[in-house]
Specification:
Shape of chain A: globular
Strand content of chain B: over 45%
Structural class of chain A: mainly beta
Helix content of chain A: under 10%
Number of strands of chain B: 11
Largest sheet of chain B: 7 strands, mixed
Order of helices and strands of chain B: EEEEEEEEEEE
Order of helices and strands of chain A: EEEEEEEEEEE
Helix content of chain B: under 10%
Number of helices of chain B: 0
Strand content of chain A: over 45%
Distance between the termini of chain B: 35 Å
Oligomer: heterodimer
Structural class of chain B: mainly beta
Largest sheet of chain A: 7 strands, mixed
Distance between the termini of chain A: 40 Å
Largest interface: A-B, 24 and 24 residues
Number of strands of chain A: 11
Chain lengths: 123, 106
């Protein structure tokens, strides 16, 4: 059974770079049937899609983050990484890793989620 | 960006009731529309994909409909586990979510 587990620093200082990892177990991130995404949720707020990456490196970005986000795959560790640069207090949120299948049937719906990791941006 | 608007933002109901949540897109998204449930402190859970398809394991008393710009999620015979926050998501363009609908016990 596919499982996702996010990890991160917990606390990041303003203007620094936030680095998160999503360890994938139960399947390979090289599986061409999956895409891997990041979604965040500020405290008490709604969900916000950040980015999605395919096994071949094709990347899709929320235009709101385009200049600050780097997403990558580490096949040796079977994990997906997210880096968010120049963070501010507005980036304080729980960050979720999620998977959606390829193909038209599911049409991009995220069917598997990690439990999320909370990140606070503060000096 | 495609803006998603859910209504109502909050809803009070009782066990056994039937409720409907609507989601409207600022432009057509075809059937690239999905519904999630989220409980406090938990990750979202996929309920309905592609507007009307029930995710495996989701009870049949939930149903989704719509296409283009207007969509609905209907929950019949509400159960205690249904009280949560519901989100719609479009994946036609760069993905966006609705603001959420908080379904609470009356």
């Amino acid at each position: 059974q596919l499982q996702l587990h996010e990890s991160g620093p917990g606390l990041v200082r303003p203007s620094e770079t936030l680095s998160l990892t999503c360890i994938v177990s139960g399947d390979s991130i090289n599986n061409a049937n999956h895409l891997w995404g990041w979604v965040r949720q500020a405290p008490g707020k709604g969900l916000e899609w950040i980015t999605t990456i395919y096994y071949n490196g094709d990347t899709y970005l929320n235009p709101s983050f385009r200049s600050r986000v780097i997403v990558s795959l580490d096949t040796s560790a079977n994990q997906v990484s997210l880096r968010l640069r120049y963070v501010t207090a507005a980036d304080t949120a729980t960050y979720f890793c999620a998977k959606h299948p390829t193909g038209e049937t599911r049409r991009g719906a995220f069917d598997t989620w990690g439990q999320g990791t909370m990140v606070t941006v503060s000096s | 960006d495609i803006h998603m608007t859910q209504s109502p933002s909050s809803l009070s109901a009782s066990v056994g009731d039937t409720v409907t949540i609507t989601c409207r897109a600022s432009q057509s998204v075809g059937t690239y529309l999905h519904w999630y449930l989220q409980k406090p402190g938990k990750a979202p859970k996929l309920l309905i994909y592609a507007a009307s398809n029930l995710e495996s394991g989701v009870p049949s008393r939930l149903s989704g409909s719509g296409s283009g710009t207007d969509f609905t999620l209907t929950i019949s015979s509400l159960q205690p586990e249904d009280f949560a926050t519901y989100y719609c998501q479009q994946t036609y363009g760069p993905s966006t979510f609705g603001q959420g609908t908080n379904l609470e016990v009356k």
